[in-house]
Amino acid sequence: MKHRLLRVNELLKRELSTIIQREISFEGLLVTVNQVDVTPDLKFAHAYVSVLGQGQAAAMAKLEEKRTVLQAALAKSVTLKYTPHLVFHLDDSIERGARVFEILREIEDPKADEK
User: Domain containing 50 — which CATH number?
Assistant: First the structure.
């Protein structure tokens, strides 16, 4: 069962990424679906989205606003017993990772900040 859930997660991530790219335009923002976690009963799909650029709140609001359209498109492209209810979460792990690299760089070369 666990392998099936992993395959469903990956399939939904790929399809949702394609649908978002096709259906919604984000001016000057890069919106990426990093991960999708489907509940075992397939009723909910938690989509973790990263937004690069200024306007993360607006991008998340736009995704939430278009949720039903995205769900309908997902239902057409993916055949599942249920079309999961999409729940969007802002995933800031890429930003946190970049900040960690920045801190490590500062530790390695403290003079880099003074230049």
Answer: 3.30.300.20
